[in-house]
Design brief:
The structure is a single chain. The chain is of the alpha+beta class. The protein has 2 domains: 149 residues, no CATH class; 88 residues. Helix content is 38%, strand content 30%. Strand 5 and strand 6 form a beta hairpin. The relative contact order is 0.14. About 5% of the residues have low confidence.
Length: 246
């Protein structure tokens, strides 16, 4: 696993809303020693020490709506987002701004339509066990916490364009994820994985062919441009010679 930003979700995370002195708040808990939603066959666990450095260094952490940085809800820098270590996990409490999207989020949470959250981080130190199927995050750099996450089973890095592309190839991402979580596969499941691999290989071949065609067109355009320039210079030279002979 490279040290790159990723998102993590837990099925048992729930957020709650409250109102005090005219201000609206949302609060959630990132649990320690609790198994995350499985992604591509790996389950992650947050160790009690994972957020210690982020909190000690007072790094800025933002609260977002569904990992969307266009919908900022709060920040530790402005003290509208507070992070507190507890025995059970990291308590994330956000004082919401008086914006239309924050009020919409509060209403959705208050009604119980969305009760989940997630968070974005960069892994720093971790420990793999169970043949790499279980990863314990010992230290992470926390970037943001997200309230009102609609589909916590999938990382935000799987963009809508990516998901749409899989659907167009008739790849069932949820079914594939379930298969990859298993230690032993049936012949039918192996065939399913091979079929997905074949579709992805065909997709890559099409992409490579398109890129080669585009490069060929660019090269041809350069040749045509070069030829046009040579023709222009030839005509200009011929005209100058004819004028000189008059």
């Amino acid at each position: 696993m490279k040290n790159k930003k990723q998102n993590l979700s837990f099925k048992n995370i729930e957020i709650r809303s409250s109102e005090k002195e005219g201000n609206k708040y949302v609060e959630g808990l990132i649990p320690y020693n609790s198994k995350s939603v499985p992604m591509w066959g790996t389950i992650e666990v947050i160790d009690r020490t994972a957020f210690n450095k982020t909190i000690a260094d007072k790094n800025e952490v933002r609260a977002l709506w569904n990992h969307n940085d266009s919908y900022i809800l709060g920040s530790t820098k402005s003290e509208t987002l507070s992070l507190e270590n507890s025995d059970n996990g990291l308590i994330c409490r956000c004082k919401l701004p008086n914006t239309s999207y924050a009020n919409d989020l509060y209403e959705i949470i208050e009604r119980g339509d969305v009760k989940t959250m997630s968070f974005g981080f960069t892994p720093i130190k971790w420990e793999d066990t169970e043949n790499g199927k279980l990863r314990t995050l010992k230290e992470v750099r926390l970037h943001e916490v997200s309230f009102g996450v609609m589909f916590p089973a999938y990382e935000e890095t799987t963009s809508l364009t990516y998901l749409r592309g899989l659907k167009e190839m008739n790849i069932d991402l949820e079914k594939l994820n379930e298969i990859l979580e298993k230690e032993e596969l049936t012949d039918e499941e192996i065939a399913t994985v091979k079929e997905v691999i074949k579709k992805l290989e065909d997709f890559l071949k099409e992409k490579e062919a398109d890129e080669e065609k585009e490069q060929s067109n660019d090269t041809q355009e350069e040749v045509d441009t070069s030829n046009s320039e040579e023709e222009r210079k030839r005509v200009q030279l011929q005209t100058e010679i004819e004028l000189a002979l008059i």
